[in-house]
Amino acid sequence: MADDMLKSTNLPQNPERATLEGRNKFMGFWFFLGGETVLFASLFGTFLALRNSTAEGPAANEVFGLELVFIMTMVLLTSSLTSVYAMYHMKNNDPKKMQLWLGITVALGFVFLGFEIYEFYHYVNHYEFGYSTSAFSSAFYTLVGFHGAHVAFGLVWIIGLMIRNAKRGVNLYNAPKFYIASLYWHFIDVVWVFIFTVVYLMGKVG
Amino acid sequence: MSTTARKAGFGATLWDYLTTVDHKKIGILYLIGGFFFFLLGGLEAMLIRIQLIAPDNEFISAQFYNEVLTMHGTTMIFLAAMPLIFALMNAVLPLQIGARDVAFPFVNALGFWLFFFGGVMLNVSWFVTGAPDAGWTAYAPLSIFSEGHGVDFYAIGLQIAGFGTLMGGINFIVTVVNMRAPGMTYMRMPLFTWTAFIASVLILFAFPALTVGLFLLTFDRLFGANFFDPSMGGNVIIWEHLFWIFGHPEVYILILPAFGVFSEVISTFAKKRLFGYSSMVFATVLIAFLGFMVWAHHMFTVGLGPIANSIFAVATMAIAVPTGIKIFNWLFTLWGGSIRLTSPMVFALGFIPTFTIGGMTGVMLASAAADFQYHDSYFVVAHFHYVIVGGTVLGIFAGIIYWWPKMFGTMLNEKLNHWFFWLFFIGFHLTFFVQHFLGLMGMPRRYWKFQGEQGLDLFNLISTIGALFMAVGTIIFIYNVIVTQTKGQKVSGDPWDGRTLEWAIPSPPPFYNFKQEPLVRGLDPLWVEKMEGDGKIKPAEPLGDIHMPNRSFVPFVMSLGLFIAGFGVMYQGGYWILAVIGFAITAGSMLYRSFKDDLGYHVHKEDLEDEEGDGSNG
């Protein structure tokens, strides 16, 4: 029976939910994302309370530029789409294509993270907008940084799964793992949509 | 397999517990850990009461007093009450729903070790820098300006323990949703399972707020953030909001499972089905829902304005309605029952009036205008001890005594249990009843000293004497545990004439719990079989192989890594190396966990038939 878990033939339609372990992971992870929602809601609340508390430091509309952030948004949204393709191929038991699309997802994730690091670097060096500049700057870097750390964690996670399963196909054991990693990836994408709106758009025009 | 483990030496037993993923053993670990911290918190309480035995006492210094009172609250809430509730949940919940295991055995173990190392971290502070001294609520800016590293230990220790609690909560939610035996519908679940389930949902949605609050506190203190520094635009009220958005649901996390215990105990020892079962479930859910809408009643004096205060006041008072429903349901369950005054039942009977008093002072405190008088006085101290000790602690002890035979296969001495109850109960009321009046007379909480000749002397003396009674009661309980376990006299699987599934299997249960999945045919399934069947639970499946998870040392190592990293983050400078090592250990063990296939193993049905049970479920 244990061997069945690692077999890649005759997979059911939804291999990620075909076993009790898979269903548990699937559901547990949804609940975890519920908790993560409260985590980010608390960070958003803190940010909203402090977004005009610039002390002597620069204000939101002085530092933020929408061009780069817009590109970042597009990159991350696209990576969500590519992870959907990966899951599509996983359900069709096509591990090669799944790996390919996961690879593209990860690449886009790295582009996003690179831009974010550049963005932070730019703010610190050109606007003297550091972590300790004001309550606003602390709240900004904490909220966006938490999101960035989530992206980085997701990248390590997905790369780990890709390496571990590089030489074997989809099976009942690893399908739930891939699936919840993609759920996680969608979640950080959704959070970014809120960051783009609440932090950047409202910071520029709000 | 279990027979060889029983005869193992100390080293093997230790290794067994360090690597276990069995919910019943994790329950025992939680019990030991939680009870240890309960004694520590009790010791701190005794120091507080001895300091306040007389006016102008110099028993301990002012700074040490602040540390002791902070650690008393923090320890009792996070390191004693929470884990003891988790002990009961682990020991009983899977058995009550007829599950062989929890949904995430590995995560369950990880949750315990994170709690353990978080608790150890908090208490290491005593020896290296002085304990946290800003109160268990750690209000900013006091917590920001607190010198030394005490509050850093608070922030990082609770952070680690909090991760563990969150994981434990998710594990129990999924266990209840996905792992119920055939026929165990939601509305047939025992009340303890229901309340544990709802408390787990509260944990899931409340703890992340604390996580964020603690992160902000850590960042302010250690990394130069300005969240709580008004001179840099920060706002200290944010901490209060985040803390109580977590903190108020937290008190329902503590009390709901205790309600569940009493529901089981009262129904069993009144020999009646619980009165108003569905209204009990409904009331539990309603309390949980309202519990998220009332956090600002801790902040009436902050100055949020009359509108906010009124809304939160009314919402708070509304909670008295579902709670009242519960009280009456318990009373109606007792009504006309054939009552057995066993010690868990006596705890339950003591709980009802005590908790009602705590509930009434709660409604008094909920009146925002009156709260300006009560705020930060001993009246508040009396109120929350009435609900937490009178509710949660009595519930925990009732639960420990009630399920002790299920956990250990032995029975605590009933006579000593009764002695424990009466000493603890009388001591409790002596300690805290008079504190209502101390508060109304104007004695503020958390003060190191009070002055003589102000009418406060006698009540403080009575309060301290009461605390001594509680201490003696607890010592009797410990003595009882030692005597019972040394004697080791075994009892049957169903010593209380129980009603729910856990009493249908041997005590302690085999590691796979149920040889065959049970078929549940109604509320109180065992009672249904006792009345309408042959007293045995019907199996829902033919005898077959049982899938079990592998044991693992990884949860321990993963938690140890965070423990080590915490010191690095705190002391910085040359100690950064500790953070690097610690995070590397944690990340490494996470990768190891991800990379190594862990498919578990099967117990073959041929081996199962050799095992001896008491015959109740095969």
TrEMBL record, chain A:
Origin: domain of life: Bacteria
Membrane association type: Multi-pass membrane protein
Residue span(s) of domain Heme-copper oxidase subunit III family profile: 1-204
GO molecular function, one term: cytochrome-c oxidase activity
GO biological process, one term: aerobic electron transport chain
PANTHER family: CYTOCHROME C OXIDASE SUBUNIT 3, CYTOCHROME C OXIDASE SUBUNIT III
Protein name (Swiss-Prot/TrEMBL): Cytochrome c oxidase subunit 3
TrEMBL record, chain B:
Chief site of localization: membrane
EC number(s) stated in the UniProt entry for this protein: 7.1.1.9
Record key words, sorted: Cell membrane, Copper, Electron transport, Heme, Iron, Membrane, Metal-binding, Respiratory chain, Translocase, Transmembrane, Transmembrane helix, Transport
Cytochrome oxidase subunit I profile domain ranges (all copies): 9-521
PROSITE patterns the UniProt entry points to: COX1, COX1_CUB
Keyword Transmembrane part of the UniProt annotation: yes
Topology relative to the membrane: Multi-pass membrane protein
Transmembrane annotation, as ranges: 28-54, 74-93, 105-128, 153-179, 191-217, 237-262, 274-295, 307-332, 344-370, 382-404, 416-438, 458-482, 553-570, 576-595
GO cellular component annotations of the record: plasma membrane
Pfam families in the record: COX1
Coiled coil: none
Reaction catalyzed: 4 Fe(II)-[cytochrome c] + O2 + 8 H(+)(in) = 4 Fe(III)-[cytochrome c] + 2 H2O + 4 H(+)(out)
Pathway given in the UniProt record: Energy metabolism; oxidative phosphorylation
Compartments, as annotated in UniProt: Cell membrane
GO MF term list: cytochrome-c oxidase activity; heme binding; metal ion binding
GO annotation (BP), single: electron transport coupled proton transport
Biological role stated in the UniProt entry: Cytochrome c oxidase is the component of the respiratory chain that catalyzes the reduction of oxygen to water. Subunits 1-3 form the functional core of the enzyme complex. CO I is the catalytic subunit of the enzyme. Electrons originating in cytochrome c are transferred via the copper A center of subunit 2 and heme A of subunit 1 to the bimetallic center formed by heme A3 and copper B.
Membership in a protein family: Belongs to the heme-copper respiratory oxidase family.
Full protein name: Cytochrome c oxidase subunit 1
Organism name: Aquisalibacillus elongatus
